[in-house]
């Protein structure tokens, strides 16, 4: 059960096709600034729906507005790359060269 990726998506974060942002709910608030405190709830999964859980890409957060709900499509070079990640501590395995889908 994968998510079909259709271009153009709402925003290409790095402008190289590595991380896309699809906005589900748009808000009119300002974007957070450096050193602002934000609370983020997220869900990260593989394209096949397998749940994983890691997000450390602050650049994507800075493009969001308060209350906005988005889907980030994170290509392997910005996720776990060619090595992937073994399952550990209740988190799922991420295969090599996997694209992540992160709901924020």
From TrEMBL:
Q: Does the keyword Nucleotide-binding apply?
A: no
Q: State the top-level EC class.
A: isomerase
Domain PPIase FKBP-type span(s) in chain numbering: 1-104
Asked whether the UniProt record includes Isomerase among its keywords, one would answer yes
What is this enzyme's EC? 5.2.1.8
A GO molecular function assigned to this protein is: peptidyl-prolyl cis-trans isomerase activity
Which Pfam families does the record cross-reference, listed alphabetically?
FKBP_C
Report which reactions are catalysed by this protein. Answer: [protein]-peptidylproline (omega=180) = [protein]-peptidylproline (omega=0)
> Gene3D superfamilies, alphabetically?
3.10.50.40
Coiled-coil positions are none
User: What keyword terms does UniProt attach to this protein?
Assistant: Isomerase, Repeat, Rotamase, TPR repeat
Going by the entry's taxonomy, the superkingdom of the source organism is recorded as: Eukaryota
Under the heading PANTHER family, the entry gives: PEPTIDYLPROLYL ISOMERASE
Q: What is this protein called?
A: peptidylprolyl isomerase
Gene transcribed to yield this protein: FKBP62
